[in-house]
Q: What sequence folds into this?
């Protein structure tokens, strides 16, 4: 989380840059083209930073042959491992595990039923031995059976109090400072920034606006089915225990089309789950940008890729290297990891 | 369709109003609160117009106890019968019927298969005798089996050439001038305007930005499933013959939650298909607005409600009257119907 003075500064910069984008005639061209301050101060001066700025200038600079109209400046960002950390387990899974513990008293049958039995004994490894099926069951029981409003309140209570097991920080502090700057830099240049994540859409929307500056209508994620009903003469949306949409892998381009209806011109991710989103963004005409965050810093964050069960990066790394996409080497490209420093 | 000079004026007004919203200090308060020109010139000075302006001022005027932050100024609009006409048949159905004729040569089997056989003989009534099932089949064969890009091109070709059977005008000219003004007025006051329609999302997105000023990412509609694939090493999205989402009736609040993630504070519709969207919008806290367009002008447009198979308005009319929602009496409330005049 940014300190509030930083937030004010970032917001101020956004307003100024937006003003320049909307009223280009009000700004001296020299000012617009050579910002007085570095828009990406937490990025080292490496080829990665150069590639980002070169792309943004190509598609936004007046007179550029590759100029893209603001309405088409769509940028899509994965969340877990791209905007915030995902180790030692996906943060939404940590939320679900906490919910299982909180709900256990209401579910005596869980004592004899996996994956809950192991979980409640504190044996996370045993609980997750059931693989995707086990995770799906844990997510289902903790993400359905309540209204959207009730779920929002549950997530809000958790996200403002639960602490990361390694750093002891709030999960919303475990966001990448360089990526926050990148989001603001893109928006300042007329981009509309979207989150496109395998994570739950209702979960992310609780904090995406405050933490990333991304409003709920620009958050795309996995979801369960909803039912419109009345309770005590008031309309509600009930969260049902059925999968509606899995926003991962080939689901990402589909989710992008369903929600946005335009191909992004820039995509940002960190794992094999983002490969098809990269391919879809790069598949459009004109200048396109794909940036893959490679977790290479075991000291300040975590180092993992091909053999990790969380955020596995294997085929997407090969493809990025073969296609010449931009790969962030976290250890060398990022001056700072989290707003508060590092792990 | 607006004449281009009107379009330039409307765009100019939008820029100015947006500027006032973004930089309130630049505008003298008196100017912001008493616009020199009537924002709704095609609305007669009736109670309906007064109710619209009173609502907008209550939720946007500095110092109002009911002030709503811009991020929460979400307004949702039905399309068929609310933003453009829907008689004698839904315009998207007219598109589908034209496509059946265009594709008939590739489908010799249609000569013996309903609803296609009747359709190709020019017997629309016979074809539609199969009810929703027949319409679903016609929509499916004309809206799947191609990529999203190919479909967009087909719709673009049709929408810029096909003529309405009664007026001889392009379908995009059959939009309601008072509603175009209302869209611009709301946006000028910091609202984000969304379309929430039973119509096809990919169909509407082809013209929604140009005709209504609503970008693709703010169009919500019914959809078929999509598949991400490669064709000649290029990524494509194939439109499959399976329903993904039916954005009608209880589907509207669900679609709103999936796409927007916030309850609208204002909803605009014209038929029983919009009832649940009205209920959802009115169900939130604070000041909320629901406006129902009642087609009462047989001379200048069409008059229909409880017994119409197109845009049936029965239960929603009773509910609107019982709850005191705002009902547009098209004949008395609208000075002008279409930008070009009337039927």
A:
């Amino acid at each position: 989380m940014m300190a509030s003075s930083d937030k004010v500064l970032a917001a101020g910069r956004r307003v100024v840059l937006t003003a320049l984008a909307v009223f280009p005639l009000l700004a001296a061209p020299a000012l617009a083209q050579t910002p007085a301050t570095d828009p990406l101060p937490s990025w080292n001066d490496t080829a990665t930073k150069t590639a980002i700025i070169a792309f943004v200038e190509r598609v936004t600079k007046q007179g550029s042959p590759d100029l893209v109209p603001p309405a088409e400046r769509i940028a899509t960002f994965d969340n877990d491992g791209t905007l915030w950390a995902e180790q030692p387990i996906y943060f939404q899974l940590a939320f679900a595990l906490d919910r299982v513990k909180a709900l256990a008293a209401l579910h005596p049958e869980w004592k004899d039923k996996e994956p809950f039995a192991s979980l409640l004994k504190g044996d996370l490894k045993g609980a997750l031995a059931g693989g995707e099926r086990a995770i799906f069951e844990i997510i289902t029981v903790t993400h359905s059976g309540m209204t959207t409003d009730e779920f929002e309140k549950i997530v809000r209570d958790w996200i403002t109090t639960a602490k990361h097991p390694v750093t002891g920080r709030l999960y919303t502090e475990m966001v990448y400072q360089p990526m926050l700057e990148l989001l603001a830099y893109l928006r300042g240049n007329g981009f509309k920034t979207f989150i496109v994540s395998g994570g739950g859409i209702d979960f992310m929307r609780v904090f995406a606006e405050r933490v990333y500056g991304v409003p709920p209508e620009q958050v795309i994620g996995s979801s369960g089915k909803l039912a419109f009903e009345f309770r005590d003469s008031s309309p509600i949306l009930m969260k049902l225990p059925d999968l509606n949409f899995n926003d991962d892998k080939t689901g990402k381009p589909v989710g992008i089309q369903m929600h946005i209806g335009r191909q992004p011109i820039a995509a940002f991710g960190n794992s094999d789950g983002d490969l098809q989103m990269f391919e879809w963004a790069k598949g459009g005409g004109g200048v396109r940008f794909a940036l893959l965050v490679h977790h290479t810093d075991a000291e300040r964050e975590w180092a993992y890729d091909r053999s990790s069960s969380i955020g596995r990066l294997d085929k997407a790394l090969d493809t990025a290297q073969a296609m010449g996409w931009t790969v962030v080497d976290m250890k060398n490209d990022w001056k700072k990891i989290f707003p508060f420093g590092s792990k």
Summary: The first helix of chain B runs from residue 4 to 22.
